[in-house]
Amino acid sequence: MNGSSVARAVSFAALLLGLALGPDGALEAQQTEPPEPLRERLLAFPEHEEFTLDNGLRVIVLSYGGQPVMSARLYLPGGRAGEAAGQAGLASLTADVITRGTTTRTAEEIAETIEGVGGSLSASAGQDFLTISATTLTEHRSTAFELLEDVVEHAVFPEEEVELARRQTLSGLQAELGQPQSLASRRFAAIVFGEDHPYGFRATPETVQALGRDDLVEFRDRTVRPEGALLVVAGRVEREEIETLLRRHLGEWTGAGTPLPEPPQPEERDETRIYLVHRPGSAQSVVSLGHLGIEPGNPDYFALQVTNRVLGGGSDARLFQILREEKGWTYGAYSQFTRPAGRGHFMAQAEVRPEVTDSTVVEILDQIRRIREEPVPAEELEGAKSFLAGSFPLRLETADQVAGQLASTLLLGLPLEHLTEYPERIREVDAEDVRRAAARYIDPEGAAVIVVGDGAQLGDRLEALAPVEYFDVRGAPLAREEVLAGEEVGSSWDGERLEEGERRYEVYVQGEPMGTAEYALERRDGDWLSRVLISSMGSTQETVLRFSSDFVPKAVTQEVSQGPMQIAADLVVEDGRLLGSVDLPEDLGGRREYDQELPAGTLFPGMEEYALAVADLKEGVDLLVTYLDLTRGETVRLEARVVGEEEVTVPAGTFDTWRVEVSGGDTPLTLFLRKSPPHLLIRQEFTGQPVRFDLIALTHP
Question: Is the pTM for the entire model greater than 0.70?
Answer without folding.
Answer: yes
